[in-house]
Amino acid sequence: MVRFKSRYLLCEVCVENRSSLLLLEEKSIYLAVKAAVARAHGDYGSALLIVSYAVKYVNAHTGIVLIRCRKSHYRIIWSALPFINCLENRGQKVPCFLNCLHVGGTIRTCQKFLVKYSTQQLHRMLPQCKNEAERDEVRSAVLSCSLGKEREVEEDEMEDDWEDE
Q: Is the pLDDT of residue 85 over 50?
C-alpha cells in the first residue's frame, strides 16, 4: 500500500471589514481557489486539484484557512493564491486576498506555527493598547497561547475517557 504525502497551506484571509469574515465558508474558499488555479494554470492545474485537494479548516472569526493538497502539487495552489481577489458566499462578494502564512507537512506543525504567529501578533498589539484594561486583556491572551496548557487539557480529557470506560 502506498501512502500519499500531503502538504497543508495555512492561509490568512485579509479583508478591510472584519465583520465580513463571518461570511466565510469552506465551499466558497474551495471554489475560489479552484477558479484561481484554473485561471492561472488552465486545465492542467484543474486536473491536479481533482485528485487530492480539500479545505480542512476555516475559522470565520480569525480568518484562518487550512488547505490540504498533494505534496507534489502544493506550489501550483500556492502560486494561484494571489489571483484570488474576492470570495462569493450567499450572493455577496467579499473583496479580500489570501496570505499564505506557512506550508507544513502535518496539521500539527501548522497548529504549532499558528500558536507562535498568534503570540507574535499579540505582542505587536501590546504597545498599541490605550489603557490598562486593554493591556491586561492582551497579556492574558498571550499567556493563554501556550502548548503546555493544551497538552494538560488533552491529558485530562484522555483520563476522563479512561474513567468513563
A: yes
Query: If you write DSSP's letter for every residue of 94-156 in order, what string do you get?
Result: EEEEEEEEEEESSHHHHHHHHHHHHHHHHHHHGGG--SHHHHHHHHHHHHT--HHHHHHHHHH
Among 63, 59, 61, 96, CA closest to 81: 96
Cell of 68: 490540504
Q: What is the pLDDT of residues 20-71, one digit of tens each?
A: 888 888 999 999 999 999 999 999 999 988 888 999 999 888 889 999 999 9
Q: Tell how far CA 164 is from the center of its chain.
A: 34
Q: Could you tell me the strand order of the sheet in which 6-15 lies? A: 53-59, 64-70, 6-15, 92-104, 86-89
